[in-house]
Amino acid sequence: MKKNKRILFLLCISFLFVLVACSKDEKEGTGGNEEALENLNQDGMPIVEEEITIDVFAGKAASAADDWNDVPVLNEYEKMTNIDMNWNQVPVDGLEEKRNLALASGDLPDLFYGSYMPNSDLYKYGQQGIFVPLNDLIDEYAPNIKAYLEEYPEIKQGITFPDGNIYAIPRLRDPESPTSLMDDKPWINEEILEETGMDNPETTDEFYEYLKAAKELSVDGNEVIPLSSVSMDRLFHWLTGAFGVSNKGILHPSIDEDPDTGELRFYRTADEYKQLLEYMNKLYTEGLIEQNIYSIEVDHFLANGIEGKYAAMNFFNPKDYFGEEVGGRYIPGNALEGPNGDKQFTSVISPVNSLGHFSITNMNENPEATLRWIDYFWSDEGAKMFFMGLEGETYEETPDGPELTEEITNNPNGLTVQEALASYIINPGGGHPVIENPEYSTAPEFQPEDLENAENMAPYLIEEPWPFFFYEEEEQATLDSLGADIQKYVAEMEAQFVTGETSFEEWDNYVKTLEEMGLDEYMEIQKKALQRYEEGQ
User: Fold this and answer.
1) How many other C-beta atoms lie within 10 A of the C-beta of residue 200?
2) Where does the signal peptide begin and end (predicted)?
């Protein structure tokens, strides 16, 4: 009798496990769901016959529309697709914490959108099955994304993880557009330049002389500040190329390619970097760089800029930040030639500069339809809708192409183009998993002044900037500790050398300290990551 009861008990337990497993399988979408596929249209609109709802965790920038559940473009797109995106918007300020909480707790959305998911998390949770691999889904259900990756195999390479999987649709800069690939840009105050009687500087020596002459002038009764930006890093962005360092772009702030050997280099110990620091030290100690540059607040920088105090700066379009009158005084600065004949501009970003912006989780019962939803915005018609809004409301078709309406370009409430459009679309602002389209985008970098600056700089932009590398879990753990310590020490010593707090006689001790901290181990990890990237894995 006891034996029979025990068998009955075990059978009940087994049955319960089966029920739990079935329940889990029903909840966790893994693709190929028969009911979902029957409801899906392979192409055209609507994407699904019967309406479905996708729960979305979405990062929200301050400049974006307040509630994406009621935005004209998305409302129209919902009618077109039969897909109701239930947007749970998370402000960028608290994004990382809430994103990590969702991943750790297992309380997952169907989709992470514009969430700036780090590569390490994409890889980690992708291998755990939390994020759905997109390779086969792209091949079958995303013709626009597929065609783009075939046209630019280097971009496909840049979004494919070491295990061969694609776990996210990225935000992309246009690889054919210099202004899109440039981050900040150099600007010279033309009125101050004319007062000095000088030409637009072409070399680091001429730049130094211009800043010295500008320091003696005043504008509108204000003392001139020769050179500034919102951080010291942005000033380095203008000048690293003149000293032959950071020649693979700004996504890797300490490594580049040794121009003599072609090997990976930690340029923060190179002689050329020391020369750069000595030059920056000269500018700083002579008062040619704004003296609070290491602690400057954006509001302080903008206030000085609006008063026309800056003779030179490395930042974004001055008209956007200083207004038409003062901002209109600025002309593009040049790529400067340094003491060794180097002349490059290195403030360049790989087209694949931010990867984790559209990741489908294993909770999603409609991954095929979800991918079709974003694929439309990679088409020409979809890009026009995403960036320009709705025909007849925000733009009109003309013989010269689509043009924004008067209400947008000359808003009766005094709104900028971006502010006026924000009532209709979810761009600008945020990490949208689309290509920055120069034909339709109203982003500041496509304004006439930026295009002129980029055209001026184009011959000197570095080629093939590195994207972020992919690291194995153990490598990432080492970089999070050892790598972080090295970067912190480098930043501290850079500031001390530039401000004169530490003498350049301590340079050898600085290099030795880095070696003792484990620089060889750090570089070994970077070499393996670079090798994986070059092998296209």
Assistant:
1) 15
2) 1-23
| Amino acid residing at 178 | P
Quickly list H helices, 307-405: 318-322, 324-327, 367-375, 380-388
Give tens-digit pLDDT for 415-465.
888 888 988 999 877 789 999 888 898 887 888 999 999 999 999 999 889
- 102's CB contacts (< 8 A; 6+ apart) are 57, 108, 109
- How are beta strands 52-60 and 83-91 bridged, if at all? parallel
pLDDT digits (tens, 9 = 90+) for 343-354: 999 999 999 988
Q: How far apart are CA 165 and CA 258, in angstroms?
A: 31
Q: Which residues of 29-52 are buried (b: 16+ CB within 10 A; e: fewer)?
A: bebebeebeebbeeeeebbbeeeb
Separation in Å, CA 434 to CA 16, 60, 156, 175, 476: 45, 15, 14, 13, 27
Other C-beta atoms closer than 10 Å to the C-beta of 531 total 12
| H or E stretch covering 294 | none
Given a contact cutoff of 8 angstroms between Cβ atoms, the answer to whether 114 and 431 are in contact is: yes
- Nearest of 295, 294, 293, 297 to residue 313 by alpha carbon: 293
What's the first-to-final CA gap in the chain, in angstroms? Answer: 61
Q: Give dist(CA 148, CA 521) in Å, integer.
A: 37
pTM: 0.86
Pairing of strands 310-315, 185-189: antiparallel
Residue 114, token pair as written in the block: 């514009």
pLDDT digits (tens, 9 = 90+) for 366-386: 999 999 999 999 999 999 999
Maximum CA pair distance of the chain? 108
3-state secondary structure 186-249: EEEEHHHHHHHCCCCCCEHHHHHHHHHHHHCCEECCEECEEEECCCHHHHHHHHHHHHCCCCCC
Q: From CA 237, how far away is CA 276, in angstroms rounded?
A: 11
